[in-house]
Amino acid sequence: MNARHARYPFLGDARDAVEEAGVDLADVVANDDAVVERARERVTGALADGTVGDRARSDRIELLSYPVARVLVSVVDENVLVRKYAQAEADAAYDRFTADESDDSELKSVGGDDRLSRDELLAEFDLADHVHARRDGYDVDVPTYLLLSSSLRGDDWRLVNRALDDGRVPVSEPELDTLLREAIRGRIEDGLPLSVPDPIADAMEAPAVAVRDVLADMDLTREIDTVVPELFPPCMQHLLDQVQRGEHLPHHSRFAITSFLANIGLTTDEIVDIYKVNPGFGEEMTRYQTDHIQGDSSPTEYTAPSCATMKAYGDCTNPDDLCDAINHPLSYYEVKLDDEDDEDLEDWRERDDETAADADD
Ligand code: SF4
Question: Which of 41, 199, 302, 347 has its CA 20 to 30 A from that of 280?
Answer without folding.
Answer: 302
